[in-house]
Specification:
By secondary structure, the protein is α+β, with helices and mostly antiparallel strands. It contains 7 helices and 10 strands. A hairpin with a 4-residue loop joins strand 8 and strand 9.
């Protein structure tokens, strides 16, 4: 039995339970970056840029670690939310949520490339949330993979990279239980109302990179967990198709995910 047959009830935006919000990638939006894209996922918009330095962190040199490194920074711009969000610099330190998310982005992209084969380089991933309506971390990961792939393509085109460094494409999606129904890709209003919230990061081989799930003052059953995982895995598969279309495209184009079963 499919998720859409089990959960036919409409959502506030008219989507089925197993349906992603519309997605669009606008590549090359930051011309000084090695690779960049603006991912528009529903009403969430995240600018993802990649810059590359021909050096590695000091700890790698001191420990004799071969290859390169990938690290990420994530921030929500002051106007990304309904009420102004103060910049971290005004507080003198990065907030815990931003730190958690940027570490997650870094871990996710390190799983996408063979670090030993990228050479003695540091790849910086910068994710800036322009507008937040739920799923900013999953949009940042999904968009960053596109920007990273474009950056690797540019290195290869310039003759600076000859080895095959790509492992498996990576994408992320949210799922949750709202009003006792498992739903894919939660908007902000759904996320606030969710009794269970989950984020999945997976690669094209169907392997998990990270799985974050918790009950919000609630518990959930093994059956509900299985339903969320099924929704998430199907969503990841469609996101991977959207990513590949964006990477292969020479023009900006919508990457609306196909409907389940179509």
């Amino acid at each position: 039995m499919t998720a859409s047959n089990t959960l036919p009830s409409p959502r506030p935006d008219g989507r089925r339970a197993d349906q992603l919000r519309p997605i669009r990638f606008q590549n090359g939006i930051a011309p000084h970056a090695a690779g960049s894209t603006l991912i528009e996922w529903g009403n969430t918009r995240v600018l993802c840029g990649v810059t590359i330095e021909d050096s590695v962190p000091r700890w790698m040199k001191e420990q004799g670690v071969a290859g390169g490194w990938i690290t990420a920074e994530y921030s929500m711009l002051p106007y990304s939310t309904i009420t102004r969000k103060a910049r971290d610099i005004s507080k003198g330190k990065i907030d815990g949520r931003s730190q958690e998310i940027q570490r997650l982005i870094g871990r996710s992209m390190r799983a996408a490339l063979d670090l030993e084969k990228i050479g003695a380089r540091t790849i910086w991933l910068d994710c800036d949330v322009l507008q937040a309506d739920g799923g900013t971390r999953t949009a940042a990961i999904t968009g960053t993979y596109v920007a990273l792939a474009l950056a690797i393509n540019s290195l290869r085109a310039a003759g600076k990279l000859t080895d095959q460094v790509a492992l498996k494409p990576v994408a992320a999606v949210s799922a949750g239980i709202v009003n006792s129904q498992p739903l894919l890709d939660l908007s902000y209003t759904e996320d606030v109302a969710a009794s269970v919230d989950m984020n999945l990061v997976m690669n094209a081989g169907g392997e998990f990179i990270e799985l974050q799930g918790s009950g919000e003052e609630a518990s959930f059953s093994e059956q509900e967990l299985a339903a969320l995982l099924a929704l998430g895995k199907a969503g990841i598969a469609r996101l991977l198709e959207c990513q590949q279309a964006a990477i292969n495209s020479t023009t900006d184009r919508p990457a609306n995910p196909p409907a389940s079963g179509s």
